[in-house]
Amino acid sequence: MARLLQRTTVPGRPIPVASGTIVPLARRWLLRLPGDHGGLIWKRPLGVLVRGSDGTERRLAVTDWTRIGQLALLVGALMAAFVFWRGRSGGEGSD
Amino acid sequence: MSEDKEQTPSGFSVAEISDPVSAVERTVERFLKTGEGEGVYGEPIEHDGTLLIPAAEVLVGLGFGLGSGAGSDVEKDPESRQGRPVMDEGAGGGGGGGGRTLSRPVAVIVAGERDVRVEPVVDVTKLGMAALTALGFMVAAWLRFISPRRALRELKNA
Predict the structure, then answer these.
(1) CA distances from B157 to B152, B153, B154 (A)
(2) Which of B37, B122, B142 is opposite residue A43, by nearest beta carbon?
(3) Does B132 touch chain A (CB under 8 A)?
(4) What ipTM score was computed for the predicted complex, to two decimals?
(5) Is the C-alpha dihedral spanning B37, B40, B41, B43 positive or negative?
(6) Which of B60, B107, B133 sits opposite A62 (nearest CB)?
(7) Can you list the alpha helix ranges (DSSP code H) found in B13-123?
(8) Sequence-ordered strand ranges (E) for chain B
(9) What chain A residue is nearest to B139 in terms of C-alpha separation?
(10) Is A43 exposed, middle or buried (0-12, 13-18, 19+ CB in 10 A)?
């Protein structure tokens, strides 16, 4: 039986460049609905593996700054709400 | 017999098409097995000796539902049916499904003559929308948590 949630790292087709070869890497999340009635696939770039012509290998990460910014705003808003709530609780307690 | 194994333009056999449930299940199975890494990295674009590879986040959703039912109604109608039992029965079925694909650029991989680097793509519109939503939430929270205290103070002063 297939797992409900699967996470795999998928290497892409190697692309020859001037300085060597690059292999794109992607992260794939698969959520299956019960009874094989559908599913959800979320794929995002993970990074690239750069293989130099001299044999060296290094990995460059792909950072999703838009997502990081959205999460930072969400956390900031929740923290601000918490501070307001604490302020009210403190104010009520001192009265 | 050979008609059942005949392939249709969609890739399914006639037998599969005649059984819609298994056809849909096979479609879902194929959908879940395929799409390994496709769509995340676009086709490389060469520009002035530099290779540009776009990278995007992809979200694909697919779902379907099927249902069927049958019923019968036995009654006696002596006048019109001369005492014979009248059996009304019927059966029906239906189904539906849908899917959606969302994609958003995340970065561009720039492969120059000597070096490879990753240039991020920042979606300012998305961030602006998120900032406005967060601001609205914070104002609503402030009004919700601060106003009662002020109201209480005003009542005490009155």
Answers:
(1) 9, 6, 5
(2) B37
(3) no
(4) 0.82
(5) positive
(6) B107
(7) 14-18, 20-33, 78-81
(8) 45-47, 50-76, 85-111, 116-120
(9) A81
(10) buried
For B50, residues 6+ apart whose C-beta sits below 8 A from its C-beta are: B110, B111, B112, B113
Nearest of B51, B57, B53, B52 to residue B37 by alpha carbon: B57
- What is the model's pLDDT at position B3? 47
Tens of pLDDT along chain A (95 residues)?
Answer: 567 888 999 998 899 988 889 999 999 998 988 777 788 999 999 999 999 888 899 999 999 999 999 999 999 999 998 988 887 776 554 44
User: Which of A15, A42, A67 shows the shortest C-beta gap to B59?
Assistant: A42
Inter-chain residue contact A38 with B117, CB threshold 8 Å: no
8 Å CB contact of B37 and A30: no
Hey, which residues does A48 pair with through a beta bridge?
A24, A60
Q: Do A12 and B40 touch (CB under 8 A)?
A: yes
CB B141 to CB A85 under 8 A? Answer: yes
Nearest to B142 among A19, A36, A84 (CB): A84
Per-residue model confidence (pLDDT) at position B136: 94
B44 vs A contacts (CB less than 8 Å): 15
State the pLDDT confidence band at B52, using cuts at 50, 70 and 90: very high
- Choose from B25-29, B37-41, B80-84 the range with maximum mean pLDDT: B37-41
- B58 in helix, strand or coil? strand
Q: Do B110 and B119 contact (CB within 8 A), yes or no? A: yes
